[in-house]
Amino acid sequence: MSRIVRVGAAQMGGISRNEPKESVVEKLLGQMRRAHGEGCDIVVFPELALTTYFARWLIEDEEELDRFCEADMPSPATRPLFDEAARLEIGFHLGYAELAVENGVKRRFNSSVLADKNGRIINRFRKIHLPGRVEPDPGFAAQALEKRYFEVGDTGYRTVRGFGGVMGVCICNDRRWAESYRVLALKGAEMIFIGYNTPTKPYWAHEEDPLSDFHNHLSMQAGAYQNCCWIVGVAKAGMEDGEELIGGTCIIAPTGEVVAACETREQELICADCDLDLARDLKDNLLNFEQHRRIEHYGLITGQRGVVEPD
Ligand code: CDT
After folding, report:
1. Which CATH number covers residue 68?
2. Overall domain count for the chain
3. Pocket test for ligand 1, best of 129, 140, 150, 198 (most atoms within 8 A of CB)
């Protein structure tokens, strides 16, 4: 048996601070049409796919900040994506900055939506692990002020039925945390979509991190293997407003193997036929949580608290 989902991972190039969203959406539409031409069931776009990674600057003008956000989804700028997806019968994943007004209070989240082949939103996720600081560090040209601009997501890690299987989402820094994959897997995820914007120079460093590409793949490959999931990791890559972002967009099998990968730090599209039954098989056998996981023996619920001093 097999349940094939053909996935297109659409790596983007940088987006400049003043680029109109309509022009960005044109690029996304181009990638969506290419993915459709390649026979894909779904095309996956990265984190904050409509704008530059604006958390690299201190922005005190509230109106400017709000212009980077979508108050609705679909929003006026993104409506064409939903219409074209429905026309082509292709699903998509899109990361964006969300502006939510709840009980008269303005809230911002680093969010993503998953739309099915009818252009209907089937999953909404708000990023949980926000990197960086609240206050800028004047010692660095590029900041990561996600803790200033966004609230910690309140959706929890969610899975939905779609594309013939169980789909989950997390966003960028979430991919470095084992909990993200494990919670999604405990909720049945067979495929996880992850968009990211990762600078080659971490926000706390003055030099490029030579391990940034390695850690990107290491986190996602380990997450895939240890949780028997397909993982689609998609970058906004290359030079963006003076800051270089890693690429490394890839599609990873539940065995941990990279089955398709981008080779540049520019716009690219990679595709793969992903058999969800491969995830099912490993979940039923190698890492059958129900049969073999022993949380009651890990010493978390009862037993040792903290470090034990040697006798
Ligand atoms: N967007 C995002 O979450 N970026 C962070 C930057 C950390 S600096 C290495 C990430 O984890 O990729």
Report:
1. 3.60.110.10
2. 1
3. 198
pLDDT in tens, 54-100: 999 999 999 999 999 999 999 999 999 999 999 999 999 999 999 99
Task: Give the phi and the psi of residue 106 in degrees, each rounded to 5.
Answer: -85, 130
* Per-residue pLDDT reduced to its tens digit, 150-192: 999 999 999 999 999 999 999 999 999 999 999 999 999 999 9
Domain that holds residue 55: 4-297
Q: Are 192 and 181 in contact (CB under 8 A)?
A: yes
Ligand 1 centroid to residue 57 C-alpha, Å: 15
Distance of CA 161 from the midpoint of ligand 1 (Å)? 28
Full-prediction pTM beyond 0.85? Answer: yes
Q: Is residue 249 part of a domain?
A: yes
Please report whether residue 255 resides in a domain: yes
Intra-chain end-to-end CA distance of the chain, in Å: 55
CA nearest to 232, candidates 1, 81, 6? 6
Asked if the structure places residue 307 within a domain, the reply is no
Atom number of ligand 1 nearest to Cα 48: 1
Contact 196, 216 (CB under 8 A): yes
Residues with a catalytic annotation lie at 47, 127, 172
Residues framing ligand 1 (Cβ under 6 A): 47, 131, 144, 172-173, 176, 196-199, 202-203
- Distance, CA of 259 to CA of 257 (rounded, Å): 6
Instruction: Note whether residue 310 is domain-resident.
Output: no
Q: What are phi and psi of 111, to 5 degrees?
A: -120, 170
